[in-house]
């Protein structure tokens, strides 16, 4: 049974920046399900995409793995020989709990859980790379550099799966999708106080891009194909194929 997210349920005098600390780890499964529309669909499909694109004797990377949901989904679907999943996160609390989750499931596909900054990880011999709601937490100037590094480390025909919160250039559409997301959170039991305080905590650490910006970067870097494959309100997921 997962613990309920009540981190922002009481008034906070001074709201600091959101961090993936022990408190967040304890409630993360509940938080993500109640906050990110379509999250379960994305996790399931990441496994299906991995099954389609993974190659024998290659590496699979889950960059910003948190508790390992995408890693486990891919691990369940990978049937090729000689594959290894490398799951990376810079939160010690997340890494510790992720290892417990990974070790709870037996599989022929080994997983290495690494505590590190994803910007400093070597990407090599990769057939699948996942950035599941991760890129948006990097500074804008670091995003292009990381994506370029991923492209260089992917095999020809390899896939990057990128899930993100999106911003929209049309202000009417942008505000409507934000409102619908807040309605989604209300429907999942979050109060107005929780919605407001969480938004204040996260706005300085999460700076989303538009879909057009993502596509422009993919094209500049040299990916051969890229598109949005899932969207619900202002959240979604894209693929980019080398």
From TrEMBL:
Q: Which residues cross the membrane?
A: none
Top EC class per UniProt?
Answer: transferase
GO BP, sorted A to Z: tRNA wobble uridine modification
Pfam families, A to Z = Methyltransf_25 (PF13649)
Identify the residues that the record assigns to the Methyltransferase domain, covering every copy. Answer: 60-158
Q: Which residues bind S-adenosyl-L-methionine?
A: 39, 64-66, 89-90, 117-118, 132, 199
Q: Tell me which Gene3D superfamilies the record gives.
A: Vaccinia Virus protein VP39
Catalytic activity annotation:
prephenate + S-adenosyl-L-methionine = carboxy-S-adenosyl-L-methionine + 3-phenylpyruvate + H2O
| MF annotations from Gene Ontology | carboxyl- or carbamoyltransferase activity; S-adenosyl-L-methionine binding
Which superkingdom is the protein from? Bacteria
Which family, according to UniProt? Belongs to the class I-like SAM-binding methyltransferase superfamily. Cx-SAM synthase family.
The function of this protein is:
Catalyzes the conversion of S-adenosyl-L-methionine (SAM) to carboxy-S-adenosyl-L-methionine (Cx-SAM).
How does this polypeptide assemble, per the annotation? Homodimer.
Tell me the protein's name. Carboxy-S-adenosyl-L-methionine synthase
- What organism, scientifically named, is this protein from? Vibrio astriarenae
